[in-house]
Amino acid sequence: MYILIISPKIRLERKEGWHMKAILTISGEDKIGIIAQISKILAEEEIDILNISQNLMDNNFPTTIMIKITDGKDLKKIDKRFDNLGNQWAPKSTMIVN
Predict the structure, then answer these.
(1) Can you give the chain as a three-state secondary structure string?
(2) CATH value at residue 46
(3) I want to staple 18 with a disulfide (CB 3.0 to 4.6 A). Which of 9, 38, 52, 71 is the partner?
(4) Residue 55 belongs to what domain range?
(5) Which one is predicted more confidently, 5 or 82?
(6) For the whole model, what pTM was predicted?
């Protein structure tokens, strides 16, 4: 089972405009290409990766990614893309946007 969570929403104002920093958490069975698929979605949505922390614990893959989402992004669309990705990895998956 994979759980993808984006939390919390912190809105910051910078010279380039408003943006939100969020934490994307991925947990589940280790599979080849997990980070590549997540990075591809984030790049296509023009979301910056600020930091990645990943571990391999036995066959489990807990990963935390700090991301920067610019104002005006469709979070429901992004949520659906990650939900679809989670369904490809495992029949039961969840993404929670706080």
Answers:
(1) CEEEEEEEEEEEEECCEEEEEEEEEEECECCCCHHHHHHHHHHHCCCEEEEEEECCECCECCEEEEEEEECCCCHHHHHHHHHHHHHHHCCCEEEEEC
(2) 3.30.70.260
(3) 71
(4) 2-97
(5) 82
(6) 0.73
